[in-house]
Amino acid sequence: MLRFFGRGSGFSDEHNGAYFTVGSQLILVDCPLVTFKRLKNDGLEYYYNKANQVDIIPEEKTSKVDIIPDESVTDIVIVITHTHSDHIGGLALTIHYATFIWKKHITVVAPSEEVRKNLEFVLSELDGCDRGTYSLVTAEYYIGEGESWLRAAIPTTHVPALEGKCFGYCFNIESRAVVYTGDTNTLEPFLPYILEETSTRHILYTECSAFDTGVHMFVEKLLDYSEIFRDNGIEVYLMHLDDVEKIEEKIHGTKFNLAPLA
Question: Looking at the predicted structure, is the pLDDT value of residue 54 above 50?
Fold first, then answer.
C-alpha cells in the first residue's frame, strides 16, 4: 500500500511523506524536503517500480533491485494535508525540478478551496513556480471520478492557527479503503471511514506522538482504540513519529506497526 520516504514529525531529520501508485500515476502524500531529495537522487522510476514490486519481491531484497529508467510514470500527483513547512517544504522544489529535469507536469491537490488559495500564493508569489508547469486543484477534482483513488478529504483538528485548514484523506487503493489522518489530535472524524462495513479490511495510517502536546495524536489516546481496531480487523500503521523508541515501547504487544519506509 503506502510506503514512506520519511515518517518523522516536525522536528525530525526526515519528515513524514508517503507515496503509492495507481496505473502510471505516482501519487505523493505531502511533499517534505526528504521526498524531493529521495526522488531527485534515486529517480521517479525507482520508486514507481519499487512500489509495484513489494508484493512479489521479498521486502529485504527490494532495495537491491536494479531499476532501469523508463517512461513508466506519466503523471505526478501531490496530495497536500496542510501547509506546515514539514509537509510542503519540498513542494516548490519538486515542481521546479520536474519542470527542468524530468520534463513533467505536476498536479497538486489541495483538500479545500481555502488551502488551494494558500498554496497558490506560496507557489506562485513566494517560490515563483511558473503557473504553466503545474496544476493546482481541490480534492473534488478526483473524488467521484469513476473508480477514483480518492474517496474523501476529511477535515480534522490540529493547531489553532490552522483551524479549518487541516485534513486527512480516504484513498481507494487496490479496492481497499485506506485512511490517512495527516496531522491530527483526534481520530473521531476518521472513524466513519475506518469502521464502515465492507468486504475488505481497511487500513489506517495515523500520526502518533510520544508526548501529549494537545495538537498531535497522543499514543495513550491511540491505544484506547486497540480493541475496536482489533475487533474490526483494521490494519494500523503509525507515522509522523516524534520518538520512535518510546512509541515502540508503548505499542509492544499490540497489532500496531510503524509505517514502512521506502
Answer: no
What's the pTM value of the predicted model, to 2 decimals? 0.92
Ramachandran region of residue 220, left (φ > 0), alpha (ψ -120 to 50) or beta? alpha
Look up residue 68 and give its DSSP letter. Answer: P
Q: 87 near 16, Cβ under 8 Å? A: yes
Q: How many CB atoms lie within 10 A of CB 170?
A: 20
In terms of residues, how long is the chain? 262
The answer for residues whose C-beta is within 8 angstroms of residue 182's C-beta and 6 or more apart is: 30, 81, 82, 87, 156, 158, 166, 167, 168, 169, 207
d(CA 251, CA 104): 41
Residues 6+ apart with CB under 8 A from 79: 27, 28, 29, 30, 109, 139, 150, 169
Residue 195 pLDDT greater than 80, yes or no? yes
Residue with cell 520534463: 103
What is the H or E stretch that residue 204 is in?
Answer: strand 203-207
